[in-house]
């Protein structure tokens, strides 16, 4: 599993090449804490205020009428827009629940 990392000085730390991802180079966000009623339209609308949303995916439980499992992903057209959205949306209330936003892991 690869993560996004912010490295200010590449000589300060030696990180395996497969794990070297700059945090500012991530355009995909992981959103957790979603309401079970949140759908992709609501998630897209909430994040579209902060940049051009390219892709939205709410992970659903197929066994129970396709309700949200409480997490999803949002991909932006640029890393800068994703960073702004992360800063603005982390800890905000969406559909009655406070959400946490993180950079998505590569994998």
From TrEMBL:
The keyword Glycosyltransferase does not apply. Keywords: RNA-binding. One of its GO terms (molecular function) is RNA binding. Gene3D superfamilies: 3.30.70.330. It comes from the Eukaryota. SUPFAM superfamilies: RNA-binding domain, RBD (SSF54928). Residues 27-106 form the RRM domain. Signal peptide: none annotated. This is RRM domain-containing protein. It comes from Ensete ventricosum (Abyssinian banana).
């Amino acid at each position: 599993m690869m993560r996004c990392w912010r490295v200010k000085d590449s000589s300060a730390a030696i990180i395996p090449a497969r794990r070297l991802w700059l945090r500012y180079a991530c355009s995909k966000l992981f959103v957790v804490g979603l309401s079970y009623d949140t759908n992709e339209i609501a998630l897209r609308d909430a994040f579209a205020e902060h940049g051009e949303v390219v892709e939205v995916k709410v992970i659903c439980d197929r066994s129970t009428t396709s309700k949200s499992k409480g997490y999803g992903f949002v991909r932006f057209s640029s890393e800068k827009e994703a960073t702004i959205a992360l800063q603005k949306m982390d800890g905000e209330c969406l559909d009655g629940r406070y959400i946490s936003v993180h950079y998505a892991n590569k994998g």
